[in-house]
Amino acid sequence: MALTKLLSFGALLSLTAAIDPPRQPRQPLGNGERRLTYNETTPTALNRATSQTVSWISGEQDGSFVTVANGSLVLENIVTGNSSVFVAADRVPEDYHEYWISPDQERVLWAVNYTKQYRYSYFADYLVQDVASGETTPLVADQVGDIIYAEFAPTGSAIAFVRGNDLYIHDNGEVSRITENGGPDQFNGIPDWVYEEEIFGARKTFWFSPDSAFVAFLSFNETGVGTFTIPYYMDNQDVAPPYPRELDLRYPKVGTTNPTVQFNILDVATKEYSEVPITAFSANDTVVGEVAWITDEHSAVVYRAFNRVQDQDKHVVVDPVAKTSEVVRERDGTDGWLDNSQAIQYIGSISGGNSTGTYSNSSSDSYYIDLSDESGWMHIYLHSTSGGEPVQLTSGEWEVVAILKVDTARNLIYYTSTEHHSTERHVYSINYATREKKAIVDDTVDAYWSASFSSGGDYYILSYQGPDVPYQEVYATNTSEPLSTLVSNEALVRNISQLHLPNITYFELSHPEGFTLNVMQRLPPNFDPSKKYPVLFTPYGGPGAQEVSKRFQTLAWRAYISSDPELEYITYTIDNRGTGYKGRAFRSTVTNHLGRLEPQDQIWAAQQLIAQNSFIDAERIGMFGWSFGGYLTAKVLEADSDVFSFGLIVAPVSDWRFYDSMYTERYMKTYEQNPAGYNETAVRKADGFKNARGGFGLLHGLGDDNVHYQNAAALVDLLVSEGVSPEKFQMMAFTDSDHSIVYNGANAWLYKYLTKRLWDEKQRKTDLVEQTHQWLKKRSLVGEQ
C-alpha cells in the first residue's frame, strides 16, 4: 500500500515557534574574517539558500501537500501532523523532470526523457502512474520523447496533451486526436516561439473548464512569419560535424508578419471543437494575452485581446455552448503600453458587505478580478462577467505585484504589494465584499515576502526571501504564530557568520525632474572611505523590470568582486526610468524611445555618486550588463560621456529592428509608426567606444534564439569599420550557446573573463600612451583600410 506511515510530521517540519536566529532588515554582513572566494559565488554558488516547493492538493481536510523527501514523494497534512509515503523512491522514475498529481490523488503524471526546446518548453515522454499499485504506463505507447505538454483535467480521468503540434485527449486508456492540422507552421494548444517567450511565458495554451466538460485552446499559424536560421556547430557532439545543424526558427521581427491566433472550444464528451472568431481587432492586428474560465462549471470563458502594439485591450467573454462572444471591457493605453498581467481569477457571486452599493449581492451576478494600472498604479479591480465599469479594490501610490490566492469562502484576496517601498514585497489580504485590508506580515519592516496557500485557503507557507537569509514557515490563516518551520537554512546562516561580507545598502537619488532612482550599493569588507575604489555599475534597466530589490543578494558574483582583496570593486545597481513597480508614469516615459532615457539616468546617477563620494575612483568606473543590460551598457558607452571608462557587454540588442515584434512594438510601436525612435536608439556611433579609456568586451552566444547573434555581428562591423582599436575591443562568440551562455562550460569561462577584465582595469595605468602597444603607435598602421 502506497500510503504507509513514514515518520512524524515534525521530522520534516521543524516545530520551532519562530525562526532562529531572528532575521534582520538588512543584507547580512557576517561576523568572521574570511572573505568570499570565486568558487563560492560563481558560476554556481556553493552557499545557496534553499527553498521547498510543494504541491498543495485538495481533500476532505484542507492542509495537505506533496513534497519530495529522500527520493520519495511524501504526503504531508498540517492538521493531523501525519506524513506518509505517496510514491516510494523505488517507484519514482530516475530521470523525471517534472511531476503532477491528479486532483483525486490516484495518479501521478511524470515527464521523463527531457529535451529542452526554448525558454519554457521541452519535449518529453510522459508516464501515468497508479498511486495504489505504483505501476506506470506510457501516456502514448509509441512516444519517442516527442510530447510537448500534458495535463490532468480538474475532474474525472481525462488528460489533455500536445504531440506534433496537435491536441489530444487521453481518457480511460483511449487516445483521441482533436486537431488534424498540426505541423511546422500550425500550433494547437501550445504557443509558437514568440507567444511562448513574450506573451504567455509558458508552454501551453489550453485550459480545461472547472467541470472538465470543455477545453478552451488557442491555435497559432505562422504562415508568412519570417525565418531566422541559427547554426549549431557542435550540436551536443564530441566532434563537430562537417556541416552544422541549422534551426529555421519562425521569428517575427519588427514590422513583419506576426503569427495569427485562433480561439477554439472543445467539447470533451464529443471530441469535437469549434472556432469562435476573434473580432476584437483585425486578424493581423491581434495578440491574445490571457484566457481564463469565469464560471464554476463551463458557462463562460474570457480572453484578453490586444492590438498589435499592445496599447489597447479588450476582455471578450465567450459562451462555449452557443459559441458566441461579447466584449465586456475595453481600455486605451496609448499614453504608453498595457501590461499582460495574466491575473484574471473568477470569484463568483458576492455575499455580505457592499456598503457602497457598487456591486450586486444577487447570487445570479458573478464577478472576476484582474490587475490594472489605469489609476496610474497597478491595483486589483473587480469586474462583472456581464460588463460595466470595474470596481477598484486596492488603491494608493504603490503597486500590487501578484495575486496569491482567492478564498471565495471568506471573500478574501491574498496578494503581495510594494506598499512599504518599491524594492520590497509584503503580503496582504483584502475582503472584496467589505474592502477591509489586513497585513499578513509586519509591513513596517524592510523585507521581501511571498506565500503559497493551501487549496482550501486555511493554511499557507510563508516565504521570507530577504534581505537576510531566506526561510519558510507554515501558518494557519486564523493564527499569527507559525505552526512549524519548513526550511530554516541554518547551515547557510552558520557559514555566513564565519565570513566578512560586503556591506549592501539601499537609498534613492532625487532627480531634478522630480523622480527618484532606487540604488543598491555594495561596499567592500574593511571599507576605508579615505581610499579610492574602482566601481562597477550592474543594471538591467529594461521596461517593467527590477534589479534593485531587497531579496537576499549576499552571495552573488558582485559580492565576490567586492570581496576579493585584489579587486575590491564598489558595485552600484540602479533602476532607471522605464523599470517596474514605481507607477505607470515612471514606466511609460520610455515609450517610443527605448535606449534614450535609460543611459541618461545611469550617467546622471554616476555623476551624482562621484560628486557625493570621494572614495570613488573616477578614472575606473565601468558597467556590466546582459541582454537589455548589455544594450544599456553599449548605449552608455556610445553616449561618450567621459564618465564610464569601460564596459562589459553580454548578449545585447544593438538595433531594435533585429528583435522580436511582440516585445519591441509594445514599447516602440512599429518601425513604420516610429522610424525616428528606432534610428535614434540603435547603437550606430563609434566615438564613445573609441574613447573608453579601459576598453570594452563584447560576448554573445552563437545559438541565441532570443537576442540573435546578428546584433553582435552588426555592432562588431560598426566598431571595426569605424576604426575602433583592437587595444580597446575584445570579442568572444560562444559556440551553440543560447541567451544564457551555458553550453559546454561557457558560463564558467564567461565569468572568469569578466573577473579578469575587472582586474585588468584596476591595474590599468591612467597614462594612455604607456598602455598602447608599440605597433599601434605607428601612424601607418592606425586606421588602415
From TrEMBL:
InterPro entries: AB_hydrolase_fold (IPR029058), Peptidase_S9_cat (IPR001375), Peptidase_S9B_N (IPR002469), Serine_Prot_S9B/DPPIV (IPR050278)
One Pfam family per UniProt: Peptidase_S9
Keyword Coiled coil assigned: no
Coarse class of the protein's main subcellular location: secreted
A GO-annotated cellular component: plasma membrane
UniProt GO BP: proteolysis
GO MF annotation, one: dipeptidyl-peptidase activity
Key words, A-Z: Aminopeptidase, Glycoprotein, Hydrolase, Protease, Secreted, Serine protease, Signal
Subcellular location, record wording: Secreted
Annotated ranges, domain Peptidase S9 prolyl oligopeptidase catalytic: 566-748
Catalytic activity annotation: Release of an N-terminal dipeptide, Xaa-Yaa-|-Zaa-, from a polypeptide, preferentially when Yaa is Pro, provided Zaa is neither Pro nor hydroxyproline
Keyword Protease set for record: yes
Residues covered by the Dipeptidylpeptidase IV N-terminal domain: 102-471
Broad enzyme group: hydrolase
Signal sequence residues: 1-18
UniProt EC number: 3.4.14.5
Entry's family note: Belongs to the peptidase S9B family.
Protein name: dipeptidyl-peptidase IV
Organism: Cercospora beticola (Sugarbeet leaf spot fungus)
